[in-house]
Design brief:
Elements: H1 3-7, E1 9-13, H2 18-29, E2 33-38, H3 41-55, E3 59-63, H4 69-81, E4 84-89, H5 104-132, E5 136-140, H6 153-172, E6 179-183, E7 188-189, E8 209-210, H7 211-223, E9 228-229, H8 236-252
Parallel strand pairs: 1-2, 1-4, 2-3, 4-5, 5-6, 6-9, 7-8
Helix pairs in contact: 2-3, 2-7, 4-5, 5-6
The chain binds NADP nicotinamide-adenine-dinucleotide phosphate (NAP).
């Protein structure tokens, strides 16, 4: 964290449990003033009281349902008008289960939170960062961005959006001092599954990290200037190989010619 960033407030969405609550703890321990956002007021108050007594930092809470335009606009206004140093766009929903057993309204709710809110909050924070020439934007994606999944259609799609949106922003802000990080968690032990009446036993027990492990690694990645942080990926070369495959695919689509497999076989001459 640089000096300009230390001076401003850090905002964490979805701070009432799981990954967001751990971000709140770690940022408070760094001495940052916090604004914690979520729907559950009791949880936010409990966490804020604990953090300010343990770390002696200023911790404010905002009860907001970020699926709701009025609540979202309240937070955007604060991001635009106050000296915010860091935004952790963490609040997210899964809406897991087969689409045939869900509704279009339910999927739209997910899109409002995972895509619309994350986009609007990112843009509001970046406007303030540009004005002060400093700031850090951390967007929480998921490895499911790379894993189209039956039972997680909109969730997988929404996290693919988070990944491409964030990585495109990184290209736009590549030259300046503003830091933008995409965090790609794998399975993490939180309330994420149980809050939706789902079991997390779809993943092997051994594949999970704790929220503490995830956040500590993500903050280390941010300090190291990483653009994309995949805390449980052991070898960075794995990411390089994925990037190389993506570039190869893209290059192949610029041939300007229809691929031979789509031609009708030439009739043999009579
Ligand atoms: N757990 C995993 O395996 C995993 C893996 C990859 C990515 N992730 C991502 O990590 C992020 C955090 O999830 P988590 O695992 O920490 O789950 P979690 O413990 O369920 O936390 C979700 C947080 O989002 C908040 N939230 C949910 N809906 C909201 C809304 N409409 N408005 C405002 N806040 C809302 C919740 O608070 P309230 O209910 O109080 O509003 C809670 O604080 C999500 O973006 C998730 O997609 C999780």
């Amino acid at each position: 964290m640089n000096t300009a960033e230390r001076a401003g407030m850090s905002v964490v969405t979805g701070a009432s449990s799981g990954i967001g609550a751990v971000y709140a703890d770690r940022l408070a321990a760094e001495g940052r003033a916090l604004l914690l956002v979520a729907r559950r007021q009791d949880r936010l108050h409990e966490i804020a009281a604990d953090l300010s007594s343990r770390h002696g930092t200023s911790v404010e809470t905002m009860v907001a349902d970020l699926e709701q335009p009025q609540d979202l606009a309240r937070l955007e206004a604060r991001l635009e008008s106050e000296p915010v140093a860091m935004l952790v766009n963490n609040a997210g929903a899964g809406s897991l289960g087969p689409t045939a057993r869900s509704s279009a309204d339910k999927q739209e709710q997910l899109i409002r939170l995972n895509i619309v809110a994350l986009t609007r909050l990112s843009l509001a924070a970046l406007a303030g960062f540009r004005a002060r020439n400093a700031g850090a934007l951390v967007n929480i994606g998921s490895i499911i961005a790379h894993a189209p999944s039956a039972g997680a259609a909109a969730y997988s799609g929404s996290k693919a959006y988070v990944a491409n949106f964030t990585r495109s922003l990184q290209l736009e802000y590549a030259e300046g001092p503003i830091r933008i990080q995409l965090v790609m968690p794998g399975p993490i032990r939180t309330e994420f599954f149980s809050s939706q009446g789902m079991s997390d036993s779809v993943f092997p027990d051994t594949s999970f990290l704790t929220a503490e492990q995830l956040v500590d690694a993500a903050l280390a990645g941010l300090s190291a200037g990483e653009a994309v942080t995949s805390p449980s990926m052991a070898e960075p070369e794995t990411w390089d190989a994925l990037e190389a495959a993506r570039q190869h695919y893209l290059a192949s689509t610029f041939s300007g010619q229809v691929a031979p497999r789509y031609y009708r076989p030439t009739e043999p001459a009579a």
